Amino acid sequence: MLKINNLHASVEDKAILKGINLEVKPGEVHAIMGPNGSGKSTLSSVIAGKEEYEVTDGEIFFDEENIEELSAEERAHKGIFLSFQYPVEIPGVSVTNFIKTAINETRKAKGLPDMPANEMLKLIREKSELLEIDRKFLSRSLNQGFSGGEKKRNEIFQMAMLEPKLAILDETDSGLDIDALRIVASGVNKLKSKDNAVVLITHYQRLLDYIVPDFVHVLYNGRIVKSGGKELAHELEEKGYDWIKEEVNA
Amino acid sequence: MQYTNNTRQMDLKEKLVSSFMAFENRIDVDAPVHEIRNEAIKIFETNGFPTKKDEAWKYTSLNSVLKKDYSVFPKHENALEFSEVKSYMLHEMDTYKIIFIDGKYSSHLSQTTHDGFDVCLMSSALNNPKYRLVIENYFNKIAEKDGLTSLNTAFATEGAYIHIKKNKLVNKPIQILHFSTGSEEAVMLQPRNLIVVDENSHVQIIERHQSLTDNPVLTNSVTEIFANKRAIVDYYKLQNDNKHASLIDNTFANQKQESHVSVHTFSFGGKLVRNNLHFYQNGERIDSTLNGITIIGDKQHVDHNTLVHHIEPNCESHQDYKGIFADNSTGVFNGRVVVNKEAQKTNAFQSNNNILLSDKATINSKPQLEIFADDVKCSHGCTIGQLDESAMFYMRSRGIPEKEAKALLMYAFSNNVLESVKIPEIKTRITKIIAEKLGVNLGFDL
Predict the structure, then answer these.
(1) What phi-psi label fits residue B401: left (phi over 0), alpha (psi between -120 and 50 degrees) or beta?
(2) So what's the pLDDT on residue B43?
(3) Does the N-terminal or the C-terminal CB of chain A have fewer CB atoms within 10 Å?
(4) CB atoms A162 and B388 under 8 Å
(5) With contacts defined as CB-CB under 8 Å, which chain A residues touch B395?
(6) What pLDDT sits at residue B446?
(7) A51 touching B, CB under 8 A?
């Protein structure tokens, strides 16, 4: 589904990703861990198509198509979803209107007509229940004045609405209390299928107790320096990242 | 070049002053307003048109619009069919209509009334003895005595006359519409409106100026609004004219105790638009609202010059102006708030937020607070920025294309001003115009 070859990327001439290789197949859950500043968020932004990042070398394939030239919205239309570490506040646009626009623009790109209003309402009801979201919440301005937990839950709600093939969750666990974490994780688990894939980007192992990864990768200094199964996450939790750094720098 | 401009301006001024004599021959010089007209032409002769040397006109030059050889009295009477102008009117709802074509009243298109209140013509109010008392009490009483307003006072013969008597709730909005047909090569219009709303009454008014051809039009409009005790006046100005039409709108509101007056100014079109909007609070517990959305591009210029004068205690004023400027367009916001020494417990709020969509667009924003009372709450804020890039990426990553994402952000930006519009049909109309301006079709109303 996602295949990244020797990816190099920089922002304002500063190299951040220095040769990433990663393959994600349908039905898989990958966790990318690593110390602060290792390039985790950059990797997710580059996959989602943020223009400030310049790909200087390597390729990203999605469903066997090189997506380098595609805009962020075109990548979204193909089924790539990024849950933001810091979701942006957009005063004046309600959660409902935002998600309606996102869904109908995606449909438009696929040559489909707008989703009928009753179908949309039904979908909104179903997915907001899945994430235990209060209906009143949906008429509020997008992310404005939301608590950290509400913002993240709203991200996963949007993911549930858009049903992407590939969901990249960037530090979705940060700012969540344990109850919110449980709701978000169970939402993600319910949405998982053999046809879609999830990439979890996280600093801590905590989220991985709830969403169990098939593969764990350690990103350090712009490269994936170690890959393994879920036990690697436990090892990192116990020993921290210093041993990895020592291994790499040795 | 400068010399040519000056002579041209001189020409128009002289033409106007000398036209006044010809004008006198056509009107009733014994009418009570004649004295006022005489006075006014003298003021115009002394002051002339404002130049950039005048502090209030520092960022707006009239040079380019004064260069044309305007005809002062349109020669032809022109008619228009409803189908030709329908799209410029709020036609989805029942309204009173006072419609002018090249400055002349069109009875064919209008719907006036004298049933319980007067929604009719300035010309009849100025000439009919029945209205003499109202004219004596209100006409030209709060209009500024500067060159442009005086020019209008000198020549004004036509416009809307609206007098809502005590305890009346006007059951439908009143539309004041001015169309120019372009039958003259260039025309200058001087519409004059008088709106008097007596105790406990409520009225909603919509005003629009629309040119139907590419021939230049310069409109120098004056509107006086008097809101008596506990009156409510909601006034909407829809400015979406073509690129050959310019408008100088001079609107003055005088409020008595506990009255509420709101003026919304939607500036989307025209070559040059200057809005002088001045409020005087003569009573306690008054509420004044001045809101505006400006969205322009190309080489358009829109200047908002507001004044709220707090004269007595316990009053409020709210000003909220949003501007979006593309291409080489220029905007000006000059918001003056004066709080007299006696006007304790005043709450005066002002905000002016702007988005510049191009490197070549400019906005000059100048809040001016003159506060002489010590127990007041006054705030003002001004922002100038670009569209938020992180919000753009966020929206695009959810599948909303760049153009739609931009439009959505701009809608959101101006949304709180739209929210205060009380007539849903106006809101729908404005939303549609904004969508057209931004070239998008969003499948919902904000």
Answers:
(1) beta
(2) 97
(3) C
(4) no
(5) 90, 98, 102
(6) 42
(7) yes
**pLDDT above 90 (res B355):** yes
A-interface mutation test, from B388, B394, B398, most A Cβ less than 10 A away: B398
| Residue of chain B whose Cα is closest to the Cα of A87 | B394
Return the CATH number at A122.
Answer: 3.40.50.300
Say yes or no: B407 contacts chain A, CB-CB below 8 A. Answer: no
Overall average pLDDT of the B144-164 stretch:
95
Q: How far is CA B411 from CA B158, B414, B416, B432, in A?
A: 37, 5, 9, 11
Nearest by CB to residue B396, choosing from A73, A90, A99, is A73
Contact A76 B399 (CB under 8 A): yes
Among the partner residues A49, A105, A162, nearest to B404 by beta-carbon distance: A105
Place of tokens 């102006």: B321
pLDDT digits (tens, 9 = 90+) for A151-199: 999 999 999 999 999 999 999 888 788 888 998 899 999 999 999 999 9
Interface check B394 vs A, CB under 8 A: yes
Residue among B396, B431, B438 with most chain A CBs within 10 A, to mutate: B396
pLDDT at B4: 47
Query: pLDDT-based confidence at B1, cuts 50/70/90?
Result: very low
Q: Which helix (H) or strand (E) holds B355?
A: strand B347-356
Q: How far apart (Å, rounded) are the C-alpha atoms in residues A36 and A201?
A: 12
Looking from the CA of B103 toward its CB, the CA atoms found within 13 Å total 25
Please state, in angstroms and rounded to a whole number, the distance separating the CA atoms of residues B192 and B12. Answer: 20
In which domain, by residue range, is A109 found?
2-249
Per-residue pLDDT at B9 = 54
What type of residue sits at position B138?
Y
What is the spatial distance between Cα B352 and Cα B377, in angstroms, rounded to a whole number?
A: 18
DSSP string of B141-154? SSS--SHHHHHHHH
Q: How far is A173 from chain B (nearest CA, A)?
A: 19
Find the closest chain A residue to B400 by CA distance: A102
In Å, how far are A136, A157, A208, A210, B244 from A186, measured between CA atoms? 22, 12, 12, 8, 61
Tell me the two tokens of residue B56.
């209030």
Q: Mark yes or no for CB contact B402/A73 under 8 Å.
A: yes
What is the amino acid identity at position A112?
A: L
pLDDT exceeds 70 at position B3 = no
Say how many domains are in chain A: 1
Which amino acid, residue A85?
Q
Residue B343 CA to residue B315 CA, distance in Å, equals 8
**In this structure, are residues A1 and A166 in contact, taking their beta carbons and an 8 Å threshold?**
yes
Cα nearest neighbour of A116 on chain B: B443
pLDDT in tens, B12-57: 999 999 999 888 877 777 777 888 999 999 999 999 999 999 999 9
